[in-house]
Amino acid sequence: MEGWPEENFVAQYRAGKVALLLNKPYTEILTCFLTAYEMRPERVTEPLYQLAVYCRHKAWHHQAYLFAKAGAEIVYPTDVLFVEKDICEWRIFDELAIAAYWTGHYVESKKLCEKLLAMPLAADDAERVRENLQFALEKLTVFKVCKRLTRPHSI
Question: Whole-prediction pTM value?
Fold first, then answer.
């Protein structure tokens, strides 16, 4: 449709959110959000975030990581209309930290959690991120111990 590119993007993005709510097939959800991506590539954090969350809920952690990683690399949009600020400012990094953990990128997960904890988060979100940081630290500690135990010993 003709109109402002921002409005068209928002309409397509919202179509994806409706597809999520209606529990449409993954291909339809994916198509809606990736069409929004194509319409406004400078503002794709929100649709990629939604796809990452969807994939995490399905335990498709590598896909979640792919979408969250791409979304986290986008700079904050210059658009004015209906920007979901929480997604662009911190939720995409939170989702990436979770996906990084589940795909074995523990150092990345740790760094993202630390970055998030430096932001002004609501108390419940900060507590959850602290717990996620602890999970990543535990994995890193286990790997350090295992690495020490498997090193060849000198004679």
Answer: 0.88
